[in-house]
Amino acid sequence: MMLAETLEACQAEAFRRLARGVADRLCPFHTPTLATIGDDGAPELRTLVLRGFDPAARTLRLHTDARSGKVAELSRDPRCALHLYDPAAKLQLRIAGRASVHGEDAVADAAWAASRPFSRMCYAILPAPGTQVDAPPPAPRDAESGRGVFRVILLRFDRLEWLELAAGGHRRARFAWGEDGLSESCWLVP
Amino acid sequence: MMLAETLEACQAEAFRRLARGVADRLCPFHTPTLATIGDDGAPELRTLVLRGFDPAARTLRLHTDARSGKVAELSRDPRCALHLYDPAAKLQLRIAGRASVHGEDAVADAAWAASRPFSRMCYAILPAPGTQVDAPPPAPRDAESGRGVFRVILLRFDRLEWLELAAGGHRRARFAWGEDGLSESCWLVP
Fold it and tell me: Which of residues 58-87 of B touch A (CB under 8 A)?
């Protein structure tokens, strides 16, 4: 029994699982991996929390700190990729698109307003993330002073690959979108 | 209670968990994410199975198909990154280094000889992985004919970042190696 039998069902199931990844903190899709191009041109990747998904706009929302390496990297090259893997479902999604970074606009204001105090605290850390220190710093206690460095990453994707592993034959499908919506939908050899 | 209290303990625990990732198929470190630079310069990433780890050489072993995009990508730019995340342990490892691809040498012969028939079958698939097809192809039944396209990726890493999440304060550490061994070992602001 595969998760989806048709291309349409694969796309619908991928979108359904992205939405569940936002809502369900225990779901593996809650913590995807974001890849960017580092300042030396080599790839960089790290876990982020999937905070939002707008299926109509095909945007995924992630939160970060203005002082993080990924903000600098996305400013230089907004092309990025997101990877999600559910070992129990044996399902991988590979997503590619471009990111915009929001700090002082309504997107960031809304995300900050909806965030919990515990989540806000990490943005209050000093000195900046990635700074070398003599000992691990304690967790910040201040939930509000981090607003200035809080950033929202909106990843608008135009490519999605579905890969479901199964003993009877893996299933791999590619979806791409252009200005007029879905432009490609096909099976690939896995 | 943190997984490791000192820099030395972080490095030892990271290496121990890489070894466990090879041996334990149920461990999240068994299926890391590999990032490469795609042919358009944007990042590409996908799940692979961690097949081997040589701590003395700092090499991680992964298997792939000569016809896959990642082999072409690593031929153009061997710089790559590997990401491992254990949600239960709240531990992330970020690994960076350079990959070599092996097909017709002792490294590949040994890896093929040690692989199971079930693992060998996927290399027998036709046409090449990534080819557009009208319907998902069935799983190949032939365990031997794939040897010609079987490839080993050896990722030799020179940088490793440890990140352990904890309510009392996250712990982040960076390790780097040069020609004479460990060249950097420090705490970072998380």
Answer: 77, 79-81, 83, 85, 87
